[in-house]
């Protein structure tokens, strides 16, 4: 019964609400959870859940998800070593256990992210949120047309694997972001924007979070120049630096770094000397 919408009968009126029952079990329907005045004997449609003390409660407010239905819910709190809480449209927020979250805490959803979930009752009788599986995501998806190629898309990350991230776009395309097509790994539930780099026969898409080459060049040049300014106009990096060092500091490949540095040099904004890069005109040697 917990986590479901049921039709129960008003058994008794209390000063603070009503007792509703199915003949075998009873629950308190607090007056704050009612929609209008009720009479003993009325049939009422309620959602059943447990309060913070583990007692069965009823509400006439419609939840966004149940044990038999999925929906998008907002993450409202993150509790280390426990999980994240999602708002399902009733007074009590529901836990998505850390057992269902990425093993790396930085990939957990943050407050404001959204997850596609249903509800489940665990072995201890607790009502928990449950992430949608691949089949549930397919049911709300639509195939992408060939014309989607090279268009910009926006979507939510719903699954993480070692090789990359799965997302579903605003219009319902299921997409995959390979680890080579991002500068950092997005969080579960994060809203990301990218571009379609492939439309597959089954209507799914491959997405890149990397900017187009020209956009990337401008962005990378700004990143390097801003870093230079933050260090007073000098940095111990040049086109001879190790690729690993460049990736760790600037989150870009050495090839991208060299292109961006070349642009800055062509624009006469920077120069290199002895493995360092300097802003032009600042204590130039």
TrEMBL record:
A Pfam family it matches: CvfB_1st
PANTHER family: CONSERVED VIRULENCE FACTOR B (PTHR37296:SF1)
Superkingdom, natural source: Bacteria
Family: Belongs to the CvfB family.
Domain S1 motif as annotated: residue spans: 1-61, 148-210
Signal peptide: none
GO function terms (MF aspect): nucleic acid binding
Biological classification of the source: Bacteria, Bacillati, Bacillota, Bacilli, Bacillales
SMART domains: S1
Protein name listed in UniProt: S1 motif domain-containing protein
